[in-house]
Design a protein that fits this description.
Layout lengths: L1 H24 L8 H19 L4 H12 L5 H14 L5 H4 L2 H14 L5 H4 L4
Helix pairs in contact: 2-3, 2-4, 2-6, 3-4
Length: 125
């Protein structure tokens, strides 16, 4: 009887851990410094411009990766993807803003929240 209970508790614990990890994966990476908030804001201007000029998304990904040299940074790639995703939503709030407004909102949110940009990038809207 005890072994079944132990197995059950182990499965529940592992499931809870997996769900917690999966939930965290939905959030954009957090900036770890003011410099990273600034880079994210710069990425926002470029991503917005690419989207506004109707550059194909695949090409925009390549251009951004070349500009920001994120090939060896998983966090950098993830952040770049989140920013491009937000910029390329046709009827989203970013599409209604200028590139400068998008960058300013991202930067100020990043600085005020300790690097959390989810509110601007659409994860908690």
């Amino acid at each position: 009887m005890r072994s079944r209970t132990a197995v059950f508790l182990a499965v529940v614990t592992l499931t809870a851990a997996a769900l917690t990890a999966a939930t965290g994966a939905l959030a954009a990476p957090r900036a770890e410094s003011a410099l990273e908030c600034g880079i994210a804001a710069d990425m926002a201007v470029v991503a917005h411009s690419l989207a506004h000029e109707e550059i194909q998304r695949q090409k925009a990904d390549i251009i951004m990766a070349r500009i920001y040299d994120v090939a060896e940074s998983e966090r950098g790639q993830a952040l770049m993807k989140e920013i491009l995703d937000a910029a390329y939503v046709p009827a989203g709030p970013v599409a209604q803003a200028t590139g400068q407004e998008f960058a300013q909102a991202l930067y100020s949110t990043c600085m005020k929240s300790g690097g959390d940009m989810d509110q601007v990038l659409g994860k908690k809207l």
